[in-house]
Amino acid sequence: MFSSNSKELKVLSFSGGAEKGEFSIRIAKALNDKLKIINSNKELVEYFHVITGNSIGSILSSCLIIPSDKNKNKPKHSLDECIKIFDNDLHNINSNIGLKDKIKLFLNLKNHILTKKDVDFIHKMCGNTKLSETVVPVVITSTNALNAQPRLWSSYDAKNDPKKDFYLKDAIEASISYPGLFNSKKTIFKGDIYHDFDGGLIAATPLITALPHILKNNNKYAKDKAVVVSVGTTTGNTSNILHEIDNSSFEKNIYNIYLLSSQIQKIPFDSLFKTFIPNYYKLDFMIPQNIQHSIYFKASK
Question: According to the UniProt entry, where does the motif DGA/G sit in this chain (predicted)?
């Protein structure tokens, strides 16, 4: 998988999907432990040219590519350190969802039960790191709340256009804003305003929307030689209902959220990627869902 062939573009992808995203971290650790045997001084992300993530996968992928204070070319956090950050704050977020908030949501007295304060750890983790400053390029996906189209938060775009050099923390918040848990993420940057929901609403994997963008920005590499390692679930369907979910009625919101939830649980279509990317590796396709659930809940306690 990790040859020294300089013509191979290497892409690491972390999918979303709540408990599936949590299990993906364990899969990534297993891969990282094997690679540490080869080179104990090299971090997982340093084996790849670019990393992409959405939803819960955007948190892990971003943690891995924040530059060190001592060396901007080296990652600040190891994978094990990112897992500790992730596990601690996953517990904190879950503990903030109390019965009172659930009742308010049920009675349509509020349309979300978490706020930006509940994800303050993202600001602490990322600081003021911008997309142009990451150790390796990153592409994070979200869903435009106004037209349900994908939005890419890209290091490639950031380096070409200062108006797209967003803060990494804003990209993550946009990518994790799942309806019913969060309101849509509002980002104000250099005079422009963006409204976004969870990137997993379009597809659980960021590869559906991010891979064409990544290949376009790495055209010096042969596409048929690209190596793509996908950690997590693969794909869902698209639903054009996000523009109204912030303010729609309780009954309609319940139905909309049900539809969105069912999309993210769709069976993966990995053969689609194999058709275009022969060197496509899926690391958790055969993991039973009940095992994923048990690991997620254990980490949440």
Answer: 198-200
